[in-house]
Design goal:
The structure holds two protein chains of two kinds.
Chain A lengths: L3 H25 L8 H27 L3 H30 L7 H11 L9 E7 L5 E3 L1 H15 L8 E7 L12 H12 L2 H16 L9 H24 L1 H10 L29 H14 L3 H5 L4 H9 L11 H6 L3 H11 L1 H10 L10 H13 L17 H14 L1 H6 L9 H29 L4
Parallel strand pairs in A: 1-3
Antiparallel strand pairs in A: 2-3
Chain B lengths: L2 E2 L4 H20 L7 H19 L16 H13 L5 H8 L6 H29 L5
Helix pairs in contact in B: 1-2, 1-5, 2-3, 3-5, 4-5
Classes of the chains: A mainly alpha, B mainly alpha.
Chain lengths: 464, 136
């Protein structure tokens, strides 16, 4: 067998080649495709980290001679390879998400709205494509820490601060309404940045220990983990509603077909409407919808929502009538051999803290319903007549805003499409293909209006 | 939908933290005291080991910088702890942070700590590979 030092040279060459195969597409990108500035920062980071990894390997090979140190270097190479396998999963999805393959106007509009939160004025988002039908957030607290650990190993660059990664299903790269789910992912960034996970886990554990004698706290470790995940999801839902209003909840109800659980009166039956085991990775859908409904009411959306004639709005309104006792989670007993009652009691004791944390995190953010009364009917009228709703102004001469456009257009999409189609020769509101065609038009007009409104607002308020 | 990439996250983060600890411990053999990062890692590990051994709360003592935010990470530590049972693990890790009168003893404890963090890294990587479906 070759001497250990020679073997290590081969190990290092193999890793360096592996790293280049991952960073290479970043170096070769360009041509006709443009990426958002945030993505360009990500690519530059990957390239710099690849350079640093190779330089580090060269230095270490020159300075390491003792067998014990060489063996440790070999372990380090193995860890670095797995770390680069982790980074591998983000590179191509980020390259694929160029500005022509993203809902760029929406993404810009949501980013601008997000940065209205005083705590997060500097934050930007890298968008990547996901091949699963998942909207996902690559929790920055996790990603940055991991990326920075890799960098620290090889004395490389730090991952750019205030940069987060959000994945959207590649199939939704041009849709508008379903992508109103994106703000939930922004909520994951907030939750991670404020270290709320650790905070809530401590509180949940303490609450559970007052109700359960586990013999050993590690017996409830996985319950704490799961309930903390529920809390995070509910925080992110509430955050999304706070950021963009009811269009998030409508997209949520639409994607999960939550109207399927309504009875003939348009209500949720507490027995029949329960779906699934109710103690899974995510909180029950109806609990999520109820919490969103409560937030919508706080943010001044309730009367508007109740007036919308759509099964999505009905779903949200019906969910608000559900009570804590309607969520019993029998799977806790069947799958975890735990009495559900004290677990659920502990959870509901902590749940109100979500709203407190949300208020603190979003302090200074204007209400999402602020522009509704001034613009919603005008926007609907524009859409009904096939006009891009960019030129509307309020009494102070201000144009509309992204949130009002999204919510008004969503209401139009679920309630008023037939009005538009009555103006179109041979368009049949009952025809699926005709309806799809014109719904797509509404999305395009709204996207154009978002672009225009962002430009107009920037012109009027250059310092903002 | 709405999934976060955090599930297997804990394992790789823990492995990398353990790797950085090994590197710092290797350098420590030429230094008198651990640097701030190593000291924070040691204290983090010791606090979670204490919780595991005494049956105390697992999450109450954590700080935002902790490597044991996820229960899976705590379980990994508990498994490695079992493998080092009866070797005065906590005492020997703690001794690294204090000035030892006996230099040879200190060297042995540093070597021991390197073995411990190497085992922690290995176990965490194994779990990460399983969770992330990084098969062969």
């Amino acid at each position: 067998m070759a001497p250990l030092g020679d073997q290590l040279v081969q190990d290092a060459v193999s890793l360096a080649e592996f790293v280049r195969s991952i960073s290479g597409p970043c170096e070769r990108r360009g041509g006709t495709f443009a990426h958002r500035t945030s993505s360009e920062k990500f690519f530059a980071y990957i390239e710099a980290l690849a350079d640093a990894t190779q330089s580090y390997l060269s230095r270490r090979l020159q300075s390491t001679a003792k067998p014990r140190d060489l063996l440790q270097l070999r372990r380090e190479i193995a860890s670095l390879r797995i770390s680069w396998r982790f980074l591998h999963q983000f590179v191509k999805p980020a390259i694929d998400a160029d500005t022509l393959n993203l809902p760029d106007a929406l993404v810009q509009g949501l980013s601008v709205r997000f940065r209205e939160i005083p705590l997060f004025r500097e934050t930007d988002f890298i968008f990547i494509h996901s091949d699963r039908f998942n909207y996902l957030n690559v929790t920055l607290a996790v990603f940055k820490r991991r990326a920075d650990s890799i960098s620290k190993c090889v004395s490389g660059p730090e991952f750019p601060p205030n940069l987060s990664i959000i994945g959207i299903p590649y199939s939704q790269s041009s849709s508008l309404f379903l992508n109103c789910l994106i703000p939930h992912e922004m909520g994951h960034y907030v939750f991670g940045e404020l270290s709320l996970g650790i905070k809530f886990k401590g509180e949940l554990e303490s609450e559970l220990l007052t109700r359960i004698d586990p013999g050993n706290p590690s017996n409830i470790g996985d319950i704490v983990e799961l309930l903390a995940q529920w809390i995070e999801e509910l925080f992110c839902d509430a955050f999304a509603v706070r950021l963009v209003g009811f269009c998030f909840s409508a997209a949520f109800a639409e994607l999960f077909d939550l109207a399927r659980l309504l009875d003939e009166r348009g209500k949720y039956d507490t027995q029949k409407s329960r779906d699934g085991a109710e103690f899974a990775e995510y909180p029950p859908d109806l609990l999520r919808l109820r919490q969103q409904a409560m937030r919508l009411e706080r943010d001044g959306w309730w009367n508007e929502l109740k007036a919308i004639d759509s099964q999505y709005a009905t779903s949200i309104v019906a969910a608000k009538e559900l009570e804590d006792k309607d969520f019993v989670c029998p799977a806790l007993f069947s799958e975890h051999s735990m009495d559900p009652v004290p677990v659920i009691q502990s959870f509901f004791k902590i749940l109100p803290r979500v709203e407190i944390e949300l208020e603190q995190a979003t302090a200074g953010l204007t209400s999402s319903s602020r522009g509704w009364s001034a613009f919603s009917d005008g926007i609907a009228s524009c859409l009904e007549h096939g006009v891009v709703p960019s030129s509307l102004r309020d009494e102070a001469g201000e144009p509309s805003d992204v949130v009002t456009l999204l919510n008004s257009a969503y209401r139009f999409y679920v309630q008023e499409m037939p009005k538009l189609m009555l103006h179109i020769a041979k368009a049949d509101p009952a025809s699926i293909s005709d309806r799809m065609h014109w719904a797509r038009r509404v999305e395009l007009w709204t996207s154009k209006a978002i672009e225009d409104v962002l430009l107009l607002r920037r012109k009027r308020h250059p310092a903002a | 939908m709405l999934k976060t990439v955090g599930d297997s996250a804990g394992a790789l983060s823990l492995a990398l933290a353990a790797r950085l600890a090994v590197k710092a411990l290797s350098n420590l053999q030429d230094q008198s005291a651990p640097d701030n990062d190593l000291e924070a890692t040691l204290q983090d590990v010791l606090a979670s080991l204490d919780a595991i051994r005494t049956g105390g709360p697992l999450f109450a003592h954590l700080t935002p910088a902790s490597n044991f935010e996820h229960f899976g990470q705590i379980q990994t530590l508990a498994e490695v702890n079992s493998a080092f049972r009866d070797q005065q693990l906590t005492e020997r890790l703690r001794s690294i942070m204090t000035a030892a009168p006996d230099e040879a003893e200190r060297e042995r404890n540093i070597d021991f700590a390197i073995d411990f963090f190497t085992a922690l890294e290995g176990r965490a990587l194994q779990k990460y590979n399983q969770a992330a479906n990084l098969g062969y």
